[in-house]
Design a protein that fits this description.
The protein has helices at residues 19-27, 63-74, 121-127, 146-153, 171-183, 194-197, 233-251, 253-257, 266-274, and strands spanning 2-7, 31-36, 49-50, 60-61, 108-112, 132-136, 157-161, 218-219, 222-223, 277-278, 285-286. By secondary structure, the chain is of the alpha/beta class. It is elongated, with a radius of gyration of 24 Å. The chain contains nine helices and eleven strands. The structure holds adenine. Residues 112-114, 162-164, 166-168, 171, 174 line the site of adenine.
Length: 288
């Protein structure tokens, strides 16, 4: 997978050479390049922003600089300056087929944005199959809304995602979160593929994970649950599954509501019923 990240602070992404992400790059599974948006400016001040049209606080990132950068990274021809893009895609010079080298895999452009749909494990899984991702990190009050609009009109798959209901100083942290969530799902990235399957939020029936313990069996007076020391794999699996159901019920009941009852076994149903759920319909329903 090729990942291009565009930011006014490209050094922020130096950390992507560390740990598993660094190893994946050494193995050739992944290539991450951080670019400085200011490299596509032409003025002495290398300015990337301007005041908001209609007034208001802060500055907004200019479409012209982003467009020069994205045209280059996506291999798109710039439209003829004499033919302004106004409205429909038919009005825009160029289309996805203009991309230099038709054989290049279709890239996905992602703009982190606190006012966008939430990025979930489902999105991470889907994007882990892409060949080329381009992340555009906004700063200040954000980026001109015509940037995603224009590239969509050229047939580019442009996504905007929030990573949570809080506001960060820019898109860099959100990009790091998404890059990590996506790249660890690339085949060959993790040493042990099982660790992905067992984790919270993965699979059709997403539950929070059971708690983990290591040795010693007793530490500062606190004991590991006996069943985990029993050597009975069936009992261990059931204990962990029940704990996952109990923790999810307590912390994220919204995930219980989304479970597919058909995928629950008899013991799951019994546990959920004891926790106050009715499990005879398509999804569990809280009854007490
Ligand atoms: N930029 C600023 N805050 C953000 C958030 N919560 N998610 C994505 N991008 C952001």
């Amino acid at each position: 997978m090729r990942i291009d990240v565009v930011s006014v602070f490209p050094e922020y992404f130096d950390v992507m050479g560390l740990s598993l992400m660094g190893k994946a790059q050494e193995k050739g599974i992944l290539r991450i390049t951080a670019h400085n948006l200011r490299d596509w400016t032409h003025d002495v001040h290398h300015s990337v922003d301007d005041t908001p049209v209609g007034g208001g606080a802060g500055m907004v990132m200019k479409p012209s600089v982003w467009a020069e950068c994205l045209d280059e990274l996506l291999g798109l021809d710039a439209p003829d300056a004499a033919t302004p893009c106004a409205g429909s895609s038919a009005d825009c010079a160029g289309s996805p087929v203009d991309r230099a080298g038709d054989a290049a895999p279709a890239p996905v452009v992602i703009f982190p944005n606190p006012s966008a749909p939430l990025f979930t494990q489902r999105d991470a899984t889907e994007l882990s199959h892409a060949d080329h991702l381009v992340f555009g990190c906004g700063r200040y009050e954000g980026y001109d809304a015509r940037i995603p609009e224009y590239y969509r009109s050229r047939g580019v798959d442009v996504r905007e995602y929030s990573i949570g209901d809080y506001v960060l100083n820019g898109g860099e942290v959100a990009t790091s979160v998404m890059v990590e969530a996506i790249t660890r799902l690339i085949p060959g990235f993790m040493g042990n593929a099982d660790s992905i399957v067992e984790e919270s939020y993965t699979g059709e029936n997403a539950l929070l994970e059971h708690r983990q313990y290591t040795k010693p069996a007793e530490w500062r007076g606190l004991k590991v649950p006996d069943v985990l020391l029993s050597g009975d794999h069936g009992k261990v699996d059931r204990y962990r599954r029940d704990e996952a159901l109990e923790r999810t019920n307590e912390i994220r009941p919204d995930l219980i509501e989304r479970l597919d009852c058909k995928a629950l076994d008899k013991a799951d149903r019994k546990t959920l019923m004891a926790l106050g759920w009715e499990v005879s319909a398509a999804h569990p329903r809280r009854i007490r």
